[in-house]
Amino acid sequence: MCGIVGYVGGRQALDLAVDALRRMEYRGYDSAGIALVGTDENGESFLKAVKRTGKLANLEDKIAEVGAETLTGSTAIGHTRWATHGRPTDENAHPHVSFDNKVAVVHNGIIENFAPLRAELEAEGITLQSDTDTEVATHLLALAYNDGDTAGDFRASALKVLNRLEGAFTVLFTHADHPDQIIAARRSTPLIVGVGEGEMFLGSDVAAFIEHTKNAVELGQDNVVIITRDDYEILNFDGTAAEGRPFTIDWDLEAAEKGGFDSFMMKEIHEQPAAVRDTLAGHFEDGRVILDESNLSQSDLKSFNQVFVVACGSAYHSGLLAKYAIEHWVRIPVQIEVASEFRYRDPVLDERTLVLAISQSGETADTLEAVRHAKSQGAKVLAVCNTNGSQIPRESDAVLYTHAGPEIGVASTKAFLAQVVANYIVGLALAQAKGTKYPDEISDIWASLEEIPGKVEEVLASQEEVGKLTSALGAVPTMLFLGRGVGFPVALEGALKLKELAYIHAEGFAAGELKHGPIALIEDGLPVVVVVPSPHGVKQLHSKIVSNIQEIRARGAKTIVIAEEGDTAVEPYANWLIRIPATPSIMQPLLATVPLQFLAADIARECGNEDIDKPRNLAKSVTVE
Ligand code: M6R
After folding, report:
1. Do 268-450 and 458-606 agree at the fold level?
2. Quick check: CB of 315 below 6 Å from ligand 1?
3. C-alpha torsion sign, points 537, 543, 545, 549
4. What is the Å distance from ligand 1's center to 497 Cα?
5. What's the pLDDT tens digit per position in 438-479?
6. What is the pTM of this model?
7. What is the fold, at CATH topology level, of the domain defined by 458-606?
8. What is the largest CA-CA distance in the chain?
9. Which positions make up the signal peptide (predicted)?
10. Measured from the CB, is residue 600 less than 6 Å from ligand 1?
11. Residue 244 clears pLDDT 80, i.e. is over it
12. Which of 142, 250, 325, 573 is the S-S candidate for 98 at Cβ 3.0 to 4.6 Å?
């Protein structure tokens, strides 16, 4: 939540910061702003800040109004905001500038003790300009620099302030008297250093600077970093030296750009075959499933007698599918819980419990806290994550990376499919270790997984079909999604996509629950999506859902039916029929989800929401609880 960028180097920092913010905008777009520091021709140091509410385009307009030529400086910090404290207004936009106009601060996270700090500043006679928690850090830094034992010492002042902040935060500090450096810190929220030649970068993630360097350094928890043009220095909050983890970024700029599609989301939907293929790669050799065995041994896997899945949003829906697969293949109970609820009750966990923590970003605060709680109870945590080096895998016992590549669209698409695949890999590894499936059965399931990328390619061709159906549907105030068995999580995921992209009411139900209440919602013309199980799977499921379709049609619903090729039984009951290739039932969600992604995007556009990458009120990484 909130994107942060920083630059110290020899180039015009304004342009670099705007470009970097463009790549960070998926993390929040309530406002954007940049502060520049430098030295003018008379040797006088200056600090200039420009910020505006709304998307980055608004900031660019403001820069044009002010005149880009006036915003010089070779050091910059920038921010794109997802509002937590204070409404999205110009005043609440970052950077915040101190009372003496010397310090600028950008921040991601929450300063939990901001209220007493604010009161302290007000008692000193400082008038705060915004409602944010961030602004307190700005004035505290100016006070520390101006007076007392840290006077004139930027580093000591920054450390003094950082040690007073509570909560989870990434902050970047600049000071007009030190135009050649940025001091930054992280606690529980992300910050990566980009190491260039004669220039250094900071970003909430590597997309901020991938265009300029592939050399990056990951900071540890509670680390401070001081960057100058030629160097970076990492410290602990007490000022002692600390070490980062240097790594080479293995994606390129193209992966973070739209590649000819009109939105990241559309690009990412089309990248799903590759996301599945790349996630499977390297996990099956010589007839055996390979997990992250460096940290989770065969005897660990064998010892687990229950699994807990914790995740949020789409990741949670992928976790529901983990439950179906693991219980079926491994015959041990799997419980699943939204991560935000998990630690507030008292789940029964012990050292024989495997906790599967699923997160695309690896930053989701609720999931991270669930991981911490699980570990404190002695459970082993396996993270399924798409972001190398992020906090959730760092704090987990083992990790299985999904290789979906960067997902920029706020609505999860390719990461969801990759999560389902990763969850199935975990299920197969458990079945193998516990001997609940014979090797040839595991090989057969693996072979079906390997067919999925090709089948997803076929489903991508349904885009046009879905487009026609959307135009025929016209304006829809609400929509229901029904599924049975593994189709139920697909129904939930389809409804979530529609809510977040089109802002219309949508709900997913287990079709069997219909008659227990939701059927009262059915009225003439109501569009209902029905995910039909394979007729070759559990027979009763197919015939039962066919009955459900008839029940809702009898009450006026218009049915949009997703069904396997060759399933002729559903034809008479579908107002619109979208075909997906035949596949074993457990694999069907990997195909049936795809038309629902198109449907949500198309309806969103019909509703006039052109920017499907950045739905209102949302952010890609939810780093606050
Ligand atoms: O990064 P994570 O996978 O932990 O994120 C979890 C959810 O916030 C995420 O899946 C969210 O629900 C998506 N916007 C759904 O499209």
Report:
1. yes
2. yes
3. positive
4. 11
5. 999 999 999 999 999 999 999 998 888 898 999 888 888 899
6. 0.80
7. Rossmann fold (3.40.50)
8. 83
9. none
10. no
11. yes
12. 142
